[in-house]
Amino acid sequence: MKQHSNEYGAIILGSGLGGLIAGTLLLKKNYDVLLLKEKKYHSSFEKEGYRFIPFSSFSERRLNFNFLKKISQLLNFPLKNQDRGRDKAFQVILPNARIDFINNRSFLSMEWEREFPGEVVQIENFFNDMDLLQQDLREMRSKEGSESLFPIRPQSRGPKWFSFPTFPKGRLDERLAPFSKEFREFIQLQLISWGNLFSNQLPISLAAYLLLNPETNDWAPNINLERLKKTLSEKFFQSGGMMEEVEGVEEVKMKWRKGFSVSLKGREHPFQSQFLILNSPLRGFSNLLGKKRKWLTVWEQKIKPRYVLLPLFLGIREKVVPVGMKDSLVSMLDLNKPFEDGNVLFIALSPKGDETEAPAGRRALIVENLIPIQKWDQIFLMYHQKGVLSHLHHLFPFLEKNIEFIDWNWGHEQYSSWSYPQFIYETSADFQWREGVVPSRIAKNLYFIGKENFPYLGLEGEVLSGLLTAQQILQKSS
User: Fold this and answer.
1) Would you place residue 82 in the very low, low, confident or very high pLDDT band (cuts 50, 70, 90)?
2) What angle is formed at CA 46 by the lines to CA 42 and CA 47, rounded to 5 degrees?
3) CA-to-CA distance for 462 and 425, rounded, in angstroms?
4) Against a cut of 0.90, is the pTM above it?
5) pLDDT at residue 165 in the model
6) What is the mean pLDDT of the chain?
7) 162 pLDDT more than 50
8) Which of 126, 234, 221, 232 is nearest to 180 (CA)?
9) Strands (E), 148-284
10) 3-state SS assignment for residue 193
11) What is the three-class DSSP state of 270?
């Protein structure tokens, strides 16, 4: 597929990890690939010696290290062992409990005994049941072969021998019904923190995979995502990929036999490509496809963003951080209130003493708070900010006198970008979780890589869909 003027084998809209991985794999098979990056969107924020990287504390860092290693070998880029950190804890703070979550069952048993003394036996039985499901999952994986992209179901023209009717059909909410509200919220907050799906009605087999799978829990919380993305970008360029920063996309047209025509703001001639890959949330492309919008409508109806995560940036003095507080935590102030209005916060503190992110004696504090999509307006945001600050003052004593600055503007400015990455979704549709919710191929030669593919897997779901998209295009062209 040789490039002629503005013609490419594939065009990728968006510069996320999934798109970079798909693009680099296509380049290895002699496709000409153009990646279009939005100028307006910035993935970090700097002020007064502080450096903030939003959306980097939970789902964005919960990447399986062995999975990352396979990708590095596939694309031939380095991955450092020091990025591995399987026992690093984060905290879940509830009104009457504070749990340090570490991927170590004996340690967690001590946490449950201290924080949920009346439910210890129930909790042990619950996780024993999860262990049994895990054995079934491991057996299934071994039958599929070590090369399979588990948890993606392998494609087969024959019957699905490993379909999920072999698993219990119960849902997580049914299994957790006998427990206290505090423990139920503890489990729910873990799942929301690690993924992008708001639901307590997950299949029980999916809950077992997310909560206990030893390979999933061999995660790399110390991974430097900016460095990883930079490494992948360099590999993309070295492989012959082209990247352009653009003001925006005006229109996408499907042309018979000629693929797609992509018209950009401020550019006279459109780009042409045989394949088009969307690597941003579906909402960012709703108005670009014209009459072909129906390709997206069916999937937009099945999965919708319920919350947008809006980051708040604070520069604070180190002395205000309570002893024992972890660098990553999720806090719920009132069990009887909804997740909005500052009642639930996802917090990331820069490492103590790391002067690349904050001046000496200071910490960069990123607070991600959930805002219902339908309530996004300035009046609500002002009311919402009061709830967030009230929650923060509860967590950090004497915070008001130890704040260097507060910045709300980044999120307000970036939210309208089609690249804005972080939403919490909900779906009313039944779905086989190993097949995902939104398929990577959504129309002829039109592919989608994003959080809606596998919304319960966070960034790992996007990376998996990037690999799957490249495989599908290459299989189609072979």
Assistant:
1) very low
2) 140
3) 14
4) yes
5) 44
6) 87
7) no
8) 126
9) 242-246, 249-255, 259-264, 271-278
10) helix
11) coil
Q: Tell me, what's the pLDDT at 222?
A: 63
Name residue 407's beta-bridge partners.
Answer: 313
Residue 426 Cα to chain centre, angstroms = 14
Q: What is the pLDDT of residue 28?
A: 93
- Tell me how many helices (H) and strands (E) the chain has: 12, 18
Q: Where are the domains of the chain?
A: 7-43+224-303+423-477
> 132-150: buried (b, 16+ CB within 10 Å) or exposed (e) per residue?
ebbeebeebbeebeeeebb
Tokens of 306: 């319920």
Instruction: Classify residue 358 by its DSSP letter.
Output: S
CA distance 146 to 364: 41
pLDDT digit string (tens) for 87-127? 467 899 999 999 998 777 788 889 999 999 999 999 999 99
In 332-407, where does DSSP find H-type helix?
378-395
Domain 7-43+224-303+423-477 has CATH 3.50.50.60: yes
Return the amino acid letter for 313.
F
Q: How far, in Å, CA of 382 to CA of 237, rounded?
A: 43
Nearest 5°: the CA angle 334, 374, 429 is 85
- Give the integer Cα–Cα distance in Å for 260 and 277: 10
- Integer Cα distance of 178 and 126 in angstroms: 11
Alpha carbons 241 and 277: distance in angstroms, whole number:
14
Q: List for the chain the helix, strand, coil content (%; round to 5).
A: 35, 25, 40
Bond into 151 cis (ω within 30): yes
CB 464 within 8 A of CB 437: no
Residues 120 and 113 sit within 8 Å (Cβ to Cβ): yes
Q: Is the dihedral of CA 201, 202, 205, 210 positive or negative?
A: negative
Tokens linked to 178: 């006998």
* Residue 201 DSSP symbol: -
